[in-house]
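Hi, here's the filled form for the chain we discussed.

Project: internal
Contact: R.S.
Residues: 316
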Amino acid sequence: MKLSQLRHLMAVAEAGTVRQASKNLFLSQSSVTKSIQQLEVSLGVELLHRASHGVTPTAAGRALIARARIIEAELRAARNDIETVQGAGSGEIRLSASPTVAMALLPKAILEFRRTRPKVSFQIQEGVYPDVLPDVRMGETDFAICLVPEQPRDEDLDFELLLKDRLTPAVRSTHPLTQKGKLTLSSLLDLKLEWVIYRRSETGRDVFEQTFLAQGLEPPRSTIACTSFACALALVESGDHVTLVPSQLFADKPGSLSITPLVMDSPMPPWNVTVISRARHELSPVCLAFLKQLRQLAMKPRAAPISGQEARRKPR
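And the returned structure, exactly as it came back:
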């Protein structure tokens, strides 16, 4: 079994066809096909279902690909370790971040980190809990920085709380509701507002619905579901819609966004910023150094969110 064979298998499984995988690998179709066939012969098992429309991994293929991804992650970590020992100050960090983290905490941490380690490269993908968990488990990403509705338990994963936060309803800064003072979820329901839900998976709707059910309320039926966080914010900014977002979105630059949190008199559910990594797995030194930077930034005093009503009272 060769590392190149494993990489070819992963590429074909990801692309769905040998032809596309060959293009992605800059190799001929015949060489990729031969490589995988040799791997199958050495293992004595079929790794791919081959059909006219493409290929899919067999059960054995899926098991091997899962291990191959972990091997790739360990090799990448080994390269990072060696570069750290050599004092190169370089390496690669792969992480997933939920949209609000990617808008606020993460950019600041990366900019501060790269001032002293400009050669470190980052690969960042947007992801939400629990969608990010498979990639973290398999080593596709070093860690994830996500908003988690509660402190979960998973023997395969470590969860480190960075910031305690809560959900809050938010509207455009000029919305009439910003003048109403303290509100409750019940009073918002009475107004029959149209709600925008950001959801990459069923989790988005689950959290939205549980927010109301926890207070004995029926969730509103008038909703728009978006898989794009930018689109969800744009809908709220340009109309009379309302959405649920973590309050930390407003903490760093109060009044700088065109949406604003409403002042709530009813308790809102926790939604905490959490680092998720593999349990019993030592992250590379460059990853550990970045997480240290992230913790230091998270511990700094942060401005309290300002509602639209308070922003209007603020002297210019």
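Let me know if anything looks off before we file it.
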